[in-house]
Amino acid sequence: MTLDRAAGLAESARALADGETSSRALVEEALARIEATQPSLNAFRIVRAEAALAEAEAADEQLAAGVRKPLLGVPVAVKDDMDVAGEPTAFGCEGPFPPVAEDGEAVRRLRAAGAVIVGKTNTCEFGQWPFTEGPAFGATRNPWHPEHTPGGSSGGSAAAVAAGLVPAALGSDGAGSVRIPASWTHLVGIKPQRGRISTWPRGESFQGITVNGTLARTVADAALLLDAASGNHERDPHRPTAINAVEAVGREPGRLRIALSLKPPFTAMPARLQPEVRARVLQLAENISALGHVVEEADPPYGQIGLTFVPRATVGLAERVAEAPFPALLDRRTRDAARLGRLLGGAPLRAARRAEAVLHRRIGAFFESYDVVLAPTTAAPPPRIGSMLPLSGFATDRAMIAACPYAWPWNVLGWPGVNVPAGFVNGGLPVGAQLLGPAGSEPLLISLAAQLEAELRWHEAWPPQQAVTDSPAA
Question: Which end of the chain is more exposed for a tag (fewer CB within 10 A), N or C?
Fold first, then answer.
């Protein structure tokens, strides 16, 4: 027996544990969906068909022997910035990359929980942009509107989950790269506390601004994947106190004080919240208020937080470029940004890293008055495929900031945020809103998101089937 594509992560794990289906059946179905949609959606860089089927058979043997693990036999996907033993980690780049010898820590933990990794999903070059396109693999398309991007940089993971190819996937978030594609594909996306999901073999990714996170159709599934992937390598520099995300899903959040923040943080470039997106976020604020929470407009004291982001992002990129086996094949924008990163790698980087403690104190004080910040995830709906690909570096930055000015400050802070679906605009393009909290606040954000989901039931909406299977070839 196979399960319907609507069966999520938790339901798949339950059905396997109860003997209602087999891992081989679920993995075969996932692989068939991937194969059928790869010419149209192009969600995957690598499909591990043979290896995944072998792992499924091993999972079925364990299930038959009475072994029980949280995700035993369930197919999932990971973004192609994560090491999977025996596969290359090209991270959106062109050229033949060598296979890696070992799983990264997050993948190792997924396997320890019993998950079957069916493939690695597409991402833009070194995860820099809110679109998932490039000469290395073409364009990954949005299951809701194939002429539009699913966002980036975890666009392949978002497209795969939104289309029902897999029930959940890992992504990574350095300036909104989980939350932005989640918002543009009608998903729940959890960016956890820095260090919650290890980025090992890198103790820090992009100077600490990038963390691994989860994408799923429901809060419960995103939380289940978060618990499965969470934990640290013994040499990780950031080791937050453990949480139980799944337990938080069923917990009432209590009556919360919510700060509705519609003003973009200072970016030095124009950013304006589009009216149709504003309307959806305001409606979500009304929904939250109707649940008994106190909602009032207030903006965190961000100040010049952007001055601390640029050195960390560009130095982190320069570190990746220095390791690239084929630097001549990299996008000119990548090489230019890496050049800037090499200039900022001394005193500017040290100053940016020191500023984080000051920002923690200043913005942390805001949470003495409020429990959660509600903000737009993006200022605009998803752009059309190809609209940012040919731009210069400066023009790309302008377009990126205009569309996505809201997510990146929480990467500087290293604190958790959860994207929740906010509805549709402009004829069916998904948009989202973020629930943002202070250090270690994932349980509170998850419980609030689950309370909203029970009311709004966003997971019941699916992309048009024709768009999933008949979209233009990438």
Answer: N
Given this model, what pLDDT does residue 473 score? 44
* Residue 89 backbone dihedrals phi, psi, to 5 degrees: -120, 85
With cut-offs at 50, 70 and 90, classify the pLDDT of residue 466.
Answer: confident
Q: Which of 79, 191, 198, 447 is catalytic?
A: 79
> Would you state the structure tokens that stand for residue 16, as one six-digit string?
């396997």
Q: Does the active-site annotation cover 369? A: no
Distance CA 127, CA 80 (A): 10
Mean pLDDT for 320-327 is 96
The continuous run of DSSP H or E covering 222 comes out as helix 219-229
DSSP states along 288-344:
HHHTT-EEEE------STHHHHHHHHHHHHHHHHHH-S-GGGS-HHHHHHHHHHHHS
- Whether 153 is a known active-site residue: answer yes
Residue 331: CB atoms within 10 A of its CB come to: 22
Q: What is the pLDDT confidence band of residue 268, given thresholds at 50, 70 and 90?
A: confident
Q: Which member of 177, 183, 261, 447 is catalytic?
A: 177
* Tally of CB atoms within 10 A around 104: 25
Residue 303 has pLDDT above 60, yes or no: yes
Residue 461 CB-density burial (10 A; 0-12 exposed, 13-18 middle, 19+ buried)? middle
Helix (H, G, I), strand (E, B) or coil at 77: strand
Residue type, position 241, single letter: T
pLDDT digits (tens, 9 = 90+) for 196-246: 999 999 999 999 999 999 999 999 999 999 999 999 999 999 999 999 999
Encoded amino acid at 461, one letter: A
Q: How far apart are CA 122 and CA 165, in angstroms?
A: 14
| CA pair distance 274, 271, nearest whole angstrom | 9
Cβ 409 vs Cβ 278: under 8 Å: no
Burial of residue 203 (number of CB atoms within 10 Å: 0-12, 13-18, 19+): middle
Q: Which of 23, 40, 153, 154 is catalytic?
A: 153
CA of residue 430 relative to chain centroid, distance: 15
Distance, in Å, from the CA atom of 7 to the CA atom of 434, rounded to the nearest integer, reads 25
Are residues 130 and 152 in contact, defined by beta-carbon separation less than 8 angstroms? yes
First to last CA, the chain: 33
DSSP 8-state class, residue 463: -
Farthest CA pair distance, the chain: 60
CB neighbour class for 266 (10 Å; exposed up to 12, middle 13-18, buried from 19): middle
- The two tokens of residue 47 are 């499909």
Decide if 263 is catalytic: no
Retrieve residue 176's tokens: 């909104």
% residues pLDDT > 70 (the chain): 98
